[in-house]
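Practice problem: predict the structure.
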Amino acid sequence: MALALPRPHRDDLRIAVGGLLGGLLLWSLGLHSRGPTDPLVLWSAPWAPLVPLAVTTACEPLRRTRPRTGLLVGTLALTLDTVTLGSLVTVVLYTDLMYAAVVYGTPASARRIPWVTGMLTVLGGVVPAALWRDPQALLIGVGIGVVALAPAATGWVVRDHRDAAEAARLRAEQTALLAEMDRAQAVTAERARMARELHDMVANHLSAIAIHSTAALSLDDPATSRDALAVIRENSVDGLAEMRRLIGILRDTGGDLEPAATPTLDGLAALVRGARANGLDVRLDTGHGRVPAPVELAAYRIVQESLTNALKHAAPGTVRVTVRQAGDTLTVEVTSPYRPGDSPRAPGSGSGLTGMRERANLLGGGFTAGAQAGRWTVRANLPLTDTEGDPS
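Answer:
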């Protein structure tokens, strides 16, 4: 199966055509690099310079696609040109092939060609001068330097700048990609934070509404229905206030109002009173000093979600809420009566335990939840230091 060669660049074809036409023009005018009496001229036929000219011209379309091949064939053509009357265009085209071999060739070729041409320049000047003992022999090295070393060095400089520009472009693309990844992660984290906040705020009130509305519908007792409706109204008003608070935080763009609006541990008493109004027998035991705001919010939300779960799932009995500080750790523990097989009194999303665990993990703390000796125990250990994460 034949391999398809890459198409030459359009500019390379233009260079080849222009070089060929220029060489033919100089040849037709009889303008050659050397005269017939030059000792280097071994092939003095008038048409002889056209052969290396044609070969060098044919190498130009390869300057980008096959730069090393073009340079090797061009070197042979230049060597042949030195034993003819010569053409200035052949030399110029060869310098372009040397330049292209460095710019478009492999990295190894780009490193080696300047060194090789540099050594040939030195040897081409020093060796003949030493052998012939004639300072004018140094001009041979100068000629090699002009034809080979100068274009190779120029190609190396151009390639170096090109590679630096490409590296800068890649770094810019990587920076933009990392920025986009950071933005996407920030959006995901913000959505998760909002989901936890909405769940913790609304679930408690809606669970109470669902349970008491079920009681009001199932019992044909006006007094019980009035009590249930009162609890439903209270939870509806509280839930609406919580929603308005969160919407106000989300809409605020002129400053960070969240610390002033965020629940604190001082609100646990009110939270417990609301749970008692919803029918839970709750006992609160607290003892703590000054607690960072992120830890306060996490502890409040964990107690709130635990009471919501107790309202849905707990068996009859006392629910105990304990918030205690020991050293640099704030321990939150909520236990409620547990009876396997009981059906929940209100539907749940199943994300409550996940949200509590995420809050504790964001602060570098620990979280456990499970049945122990007939009671369901939720425990969170929240460190009071290194609380730079956002527990929301």
